[in-house]
Design brief:
Length: about 120
């Protein structure tokens, strides 16, 4: 069984900062790409940032220069430092982890989602 648990959401004023954490735990062989998505009410889920197991990152154009992702592979944890937050950043932030799970003599890839912390940016 694998779990993905996020933390760090909350209420912040425009221009403020928050740091989100996402940890994968359980019967994990390895954690590959981890990602954060933004899910606002009435809108499609949007990719915010990804980070590979080697530390390569990608960001949505809307957050480049303001958000920074990092990870601690020993803890299977990804972080998202969000600076200069804007009201349009108000959303549930969902963490996704691409996880390899050992099953007998084989390794199987799975995709797991967390519940997502709420981030509210007041104007």
């Amino acid at each position: 069984q694998v779990q993905v648990v996020e933390s760090g959401g909350g209420l912040v004023q425009t221009g403020g900062s928050l740091r989100l954490s996402c940890r994968a735990s359980g019967s994990i062989f390895s954690v590959n790409t981890m990602a954060w998505y933004q899910q606002a009410p009435g809108k499609q889920r949007e990719l915010v940032a990804t980070i590979s197991s080697s530390g390569s990152t990608n960001y949505a154009d809307s957050v480049k220069g303001r958000f920074t992702s990092s990870r601690d592979n020993a803890k299977n944890t990804m972080y998202l430092q969000m600076n200069s937050l804007k009201p349009e950043g108000t959303s549930v932030y969902l963490c996704n982890a691409e996880v390899a799970v050992a099953g007998g003599s084989a390794i199987y890839p799975y995709s797991y989602w967390g519940q997502g912390p709420q981030v509210t940016v007041s104007s």
